[in-house]
Write a structure and sequence with these properties.
This protein is mainly α. The chain contains 19 helices and two strands. The chain has a two-stranded antiparallel ribbon.
């Protein structure tokens, strides 16, 4: 063990293990209602290219998306001019999506029309790809925060703030690669944390496995993987080798896909874009732009701190975390990831992310930013906690409106990039764009939103009551 490594103790005494288990089950129930209430059988280009690949594999036994390529502009043509199209996206987010699609399509195929079966496959596949990883990541975030020395209630507050009060919520319902990258990155950090503060060699291998999965879910997640590599290197050569070996399976899967589609493991779909607008990948990244940085931070329609202002406390929390010798390594890891993503997104020529809600490119760094809130929360005075709680409530309202109205808006209904104002206007009018459980039960749009609020809110209240009397435990200073 490295000289400054600290062991991870049992996060709660035996007498409170039952309370922890109840809290975890309530968290699962809450997040299940949060992520699976809306059914997304399709969406914009980014969504449709992923579903097109899955359907091509399942129904046509090919990697070419020629049958449905007209539904997406996110596609690669190889050889150029051949009229043969492939999905241009990283494929890590399609692994669980493929499994979910098979379950949904196969289950609905008994007694249902082909169209209904296709939609069922898309709905279950979408949840398996983005909702399920989020639930698992949030359970591990709860455990991490307990190890940081938070009480069960404090850890639950921060976890729910992340899950429901940030862009993690809407992007846990629509089929982009950003939230899977965020979830797999956080899971990788959980195992890396165990590796740095423990002895078992399996932890760095698992950290490498999920870090590799994060990369092939969304390529810029290499930022997270690189930071984790440096973080885990303190454990010595054996851990470094285990981390690298662990990352091989999913990296190899992406390289095999490249080889099968584009003739070489090192050729990526972005180099063969069929859409002229996307055909010059070298121009995608430039020097950071001030207007873009303002846009993704404080602008009314895209600013992450306008949508989730409680995250400003998380930014502040990273500073004392870095200064604390006991948590410096974790603080530096989180700060580097957060800063790198802000630089990356403000350097992107499409920094607004197209027709989507919020700055989607920074979604993978949000759980690491919330680690700063986890450090700061128990050390904040009561008035600051009250203010943070109020601002977190605003974030939940914004994300609730987005999830119920424009998480993945249809192009014909939205001009430009939708923001919180449009989300609240649509919610007030009862505009629900995608099928929901409430609509299936015959409720109008407003009724569906109210039912969703109840299904998420009641377990949240129960969770708050369950965690009422837990005391801080763990390795906090």
């Amino acid at each position: 063990m490295s000289e400054d490594a600290l062991p991870v103790p049992s996060v709660l005494p035996d007498s409170n293990q039952r309370k922890l288990r109840r809290a975890c089950w309530l968290l699962v129930l809450l997040l299940l209602f949060a992520t699976a209430y809306h059914w997304h059988p399709g969406g914009g280009w980014n969504v449709m290219t992923r579903l097109a690949l899955i359907r091509a594999i399942v129904h046509d036994h090919t990697l070419s998306i020629n049958r449905s390529h007209e539904h997406t502009g996110d596609k690669a043509e190889y050889p150029p001019g051949s009229g043969i199209y492939y999905s241009d996206k990283a494929i890590g987010g399609q692994v669980l999506g493929l499994v979910g699609y098979l379950i949904g399509y196969g289950g609905a195929a008994i007694g249902a029309t082909r169209g209904a079966s296709l939609n069922a496959g898309a709905v279950v596949g979408t949840w398996a790809a983005v909702g399920l990883p989020t639930i698992i990541a949030c359970l591990l975030m709860l455990q991490l925060l307990l190890s940081f020395g938070l009480s069960l209630r404090q850890a639950a507050f921060v976890t729910l703030g992340y899950a429901l009060g940030t862009l993690a919520w809407p992007y846990s319902t629509v089929y982009y690669g950003h939230q899977p990258a965020a979830a797999f990155g956080l899971i990788a950090f959980y195992f890396a944390f165990r590796a740095v503060r423990g002895e078992r060699l399996v932890w760095p291998a698992l950290a490498g496995l999920f870090a590799g999965w994060a990369i092939v879910a969304e390529f810029p997640a290499a930022i997270i993987a690189a930071a984790l590599f440096v973080y885990i290197a303190r454990r010595g050569p054996r851990s470094i080798v285990a981390f690298l070996i662990g990352g091989i399976p999913f990296i190899a899967l992406q390289l095999a896909y490249n080889w099968a589609c584009f003739g070489s493991p090192l050729r990526f779909g972005y180099a063969y874009e069929a859409n002229p607008e996307f055909a010059h990948p070298a121009s995608w990244i430039r020097l950071p732009q001030a207007d873009a940085l303002w846009g993704i931070t404080f602008s009314a329609d895209k600013g992450v701190f306008a949508m989730s202002p409680f995250l400003l406390f998380a930014v502040w929390g990273l500073w004392p975390m870095v200064r604390d010798r006991a948590w410096r390594a974790e603080g530096l890891l989180a700060a580097v990831i957060v800063l790198s993503y802000f630089v990356y997104n403000s350097s992107h020529y499409m920094w607004r992310g197209g027709v989507c809600f919020g700055p989607r490119h920074i979604v993978p760094m949000l759980p690491f930013l919330c680690l700063g809130l986890g450090y700061a929360w128990p050390r904040m005075p009561s008035f600051a906690q009250l203010l943070c709680g109020i601002l977190a409530g605003w974030g939940v309202l914004v994300m609730f409106a987005a999830v119920n109205t424009i998480a993945e808006p249809a192009y014909q209904l939205v001009t430009g990039s939708p923001g919180p104002v449009e989300a609240f206007v649509r919610l007030s009018l009862g505009v629900v764009e995608w099928p929901t459980l409430g609509l299936a039960l015959g409720l109008p749009g407003w009724g569906s939103a109210i039912l969703h609020a109840l299904l998420v809110g009641l377990p949240a209240i129960w969770l708050w009551r369950v965690t009422a009397s837990s005391e801080p435990e763990g390795c906090g200073p």
